[in-house]
Each structure stands twice: as structure tokens, then as C-alpha cells.
Amino acid sequence: MSKGTRRKRQILVAATETLKTVGLSNWSIDLVAEKANCSKGLVLYHFTTRERLLVEVGTNLRQHHQGTLLNALAKGGTEGLDALWEAIERGVQTGATAARTALLVAPSRPIQRAVTRSDADRFDVSHAMHRVLSLPRNTISPLLLDSMIAGLALLLGMGQPSRVVRDAYDDFFLLLLKRS
Questions:
Q1: Which residue segments constitute the domains of the chain, with CATH numbers given?
Q2: Residue 96 buriedness (CB in 10 A; 0-12 / 13-18 / 19+)
Q3: How many angstroms separate the CA atoms of 88 and 83, rounded?
Q4: Residue 1 has what pLDDT?
Q5: Residue 114 near residue 135, CB atoms below 8 Å
Q6: How far is CA 2 from CA 7, 8, 9, 42, 72, in A?
Q7: Is 2 left (phi over 0), alpha (psi -120 to 50) or beta?
Q8: Looking at residues 154-163, what average pLDDT do you find?
Q9: How far apart are CA 5 and CA 91, in angstroms?
Q10: Do residues 172 and 148 lie in contact, with contact meaning Cβ atoms separated by under 8 Å?
Q11: Which of 4, 14, 65, 162 is the most exposed place for a label (fewest CB within 10 A)?
Q12: What is the pLDDT of residues 29-51, one digit of tens each?
């Protein structure tokens, strides 16, 4: 990896961490440059605009989220469900959920699109969940599962007690298993 590529990656990581810690309304190129230990000009050299940098941040957050969900579900069975729950909680605790949510409502369509999960992403997670629960295909709508995961993460982020949200999580999957 070249020095320029490493520096660009360092700036992207700094931009993501800054978004996670200060939120979108307080996020700035100046803060990113400070966190990346470089000049504002270097940030703009690599990304040209605030929007382009936030598009890259959104893309990385979406890809990381997708990988986290699939890795959790790769464990299978109740271990996979437990790992998925832990991934949801970790996303809230690290600020990743809040960062993705902030970008989803950003006043820029390119930023919103970068962080929005695709139908293919939703299908892959739904397919993995079908394997985990040993359910016939198409038992769980990909959009329903995606909405459930996002909704539970938002509840945790809003301060709902973890035990209450976990009970709802467990109830959702128990209902699916009873239904099939």
C-alpha cells in the first residue's frame, strides 16, 4: 500500500471516528484533519469535498455493518442469534449505529445512498438468518428483518433498557419459529 493510500485510509478512519464521537451536526473537515494529524488541505486533496468524504464514510459504515451481521450469523443456531444481538449492542456502544442513522437523514442524497443498505445486502442477511433458524426460504422478508434489526438498535440508542430490548429480540425469533 502506497503512502498516499495509507494516508487516505487514515483520514477516512479519522472521519468515521469523528462522526461516531461528535455526530454529524458537529462534524467538520477541521476536526477530521486534527484527528488524522494532517492539514485540512490534505483531507480535501484526497476527498475534494465534505460530501465526498461523508459518502466514503457512509459506504464504509454500511460495508462494515453488513460484514458484522453476516459474521455473526455465520456462527449458526442460538450462537448466531446471540452473536447478532452482541453485534447490535456493539454498534450502539461504539457509535456506529448513531453515525449510520445520522447519514441516513443527511441533507444529501449521495450521502444517504452511500449508507443505505441494498436489497442484495438485505437478502444476504435474510438468507443467513434462514440458515441459522433452519427455516424454509422466504419465511422472513429481508426488509422486515432489516427493519427489526435497525429498530432494536434505535431503541437501545434511545436508552431503552438492554434487557427489555433483548426480550423483544428473542420474542421476534420465537414467533418466527412457532409460525414455521
A1: 1-48 (1.10.10.60), 55-179 (1.10.357)
A2: buried
A3: 9
A4: 77
A5: no
A6: 9, 10, 11, 16, 32
A7: beta
A8: 97
A9: 27
A10: yes
A11: 4
A12: 999 999 999 999 999 999 999 99
Termini Cα distance of the chain = 49
User: Residues 117, 122, 123, 124: is their CA dihedral positive or negative?
Assistant: positive
The pLDDT tens digits for 62-112 are 999 999 999 999 998 999 999 999 999 999 999 999 999 999 999 999 999
Which residue type sits at 169?
Y
Alpha carbon distance 149, 128 (integer Å): 14
Cβ–Cβ under 8 Å, residues 4 and 12: no
Query: Which among 46, 106, 96, 98 has a CA at the least distance from the CA of 67?
Result: 96
Residue type, 38: C
**pLDDT at 58 exceeding the cut of 90:** yes
Residue 1 exposed, middle or buried by CB count within 10 Å (0-12, 13-18, 19+): exposed
Cell of 146: 432489516
Q: Please state the rounded mean pLDDT for residues 126-150.
A: 94
- Short-list 177, 166, 168, 167, CA closest to 85: 166
Cβ 33 vs Cβ 42: under 8 Å: yes
80-91 core/surface letters (b: 16 or more CB in 10 A; e: else): bbebbbebbbeb
